Amino acid sequence: MPARDRIPARSRTGGGPAASGPRRAPAQAGRAGAGPARRAGSPAPVDQLVVGPVPLLARVVGALLALAGLVAAIAAFPTYLVVGGSAVAPVSGPVDALVALLAPAAAVVVGAGLLLGRVPRLGLAYAAVTGALAVGRLLIELYEGRGSTTRPAVEVLAGERVVTSSVDIGTGWVLGVVALSLAVLAGVLAMVAWGRTVMEDGGTLDPLRPALAGCAVVVGVAAALCLALPAADVPDRVVTDPTTGLETVVAGEGAQPLLERPGLALLGGLLLAVALLLCAVTAPSLRPRLGAVGGLLGVTVFLLAAALTGWRDGVRGPAVDWTLPGVGLLVLGLAAAALTVLAWRWRSGSAPVPR
Model confidence over 289-343: pLDDT tens digits? Predict the structure, then answer.
């Protein structure tokens, strides 16, 4: 065979697949040298947060939420109510101030982040939960400032045992009602802005959502039961008859249970219990993962604020004790905080990259 016949066919043909092979090889080598090949369906880190343009309505929600927190923080210091001639103020020392400023500080921080466009669905979820819980609280505040004198009773306000025979509203009560109204408005607008806000991730929390929802349901039901009874109340007294030496238990008349009050207070208590249960159930299903974190954070802040307020009243008032439902609220608040941290820190590994 002549030597020239041993040369492959690519030397005699200028085109065809054989001729184009050497020209494609450098491009393929370049792609391979750029790093590991990422094929369709290959695992890759999924906790990639995608945030679209933040709509103006979401920023308005952040501004309202931050403003509600600022007004609530200011409302904690002036006179709240004047009951039977005695002025009642929530803050009388540094410990009272820390307890009273917990929820307002959280609202200011989350609202400012939403106003700046940071992780918008986290802020929207927090605003929606806070607004839903503020509806019942607003009705209860209106009852205490306006309707409690129609049926005078013993109440525990800021650690003081008072009789609501006459009630005059103070600056703190007015500012508190304004703050709750702003929170309700922010919650309504947050629900409207939720569907218009683009924010998604790869679904790292999806494997954990059923267990998270189950735990949240237990926390919500137990918290609603604890809210039905006062977190701080007047304890019973043991009275000894000096003549016979017979000991008798006298029930101390203290704060009325939430669901045994009349009018707006009863409606507010029912709405508060229902809203707390619904928020606890719904929060773990919010997408993306940080949306669920925002919803759980709203439930956590509410429970901790309610528990610490009851603890403050029990420590501050000499004739008032911290009750078992108040302790239960603190335990449930810590459990909700643990669920929030778990949802925030959870990583489930990888998921396929779409084609």
Answer: 999 999 999 999 999 999 999 888 888 766 778 888 889 999 999 999 999 999 9
| CB-count burial class (<10 Å; 0-12, 13-18, 19+) for 285 | middle
pTM metric for this prediction = 0.80
Burial class of 148 by CB neighbour count within 10 A (0 to 12, 13 to 18, 19+): buried
**Peptide bond between residue 207 and the one before it cis (omega within 30 degrees of 0):** no
Residue entry with tokens 């993962």? 289
One-letter identity of residue 334: L
Which residues on adjacent β-strands are paired with residue 248? Answer: 239
Q: What sign for the dihedral angle of Cα 270, 268, 317, 164?
A: negative
> What's the CA gap between 170 and 297, in Å, rounded?
31
Token pair 């959870």 is at which residue? 346
Contact 180, 169 (CB under 8 A): no
Tell me if 125 sits within 8 A of 197, measured CB to CB.
Answer: no
pLDDT one-digit tens code per residue, 220-258: 999 999 988 888 776 656 666 667 666 665 555 556 777
Amino acid at 33: G
Q: Taken in order 184, 269, 267, 313, is the CA torsion positive or negative?
A: negative
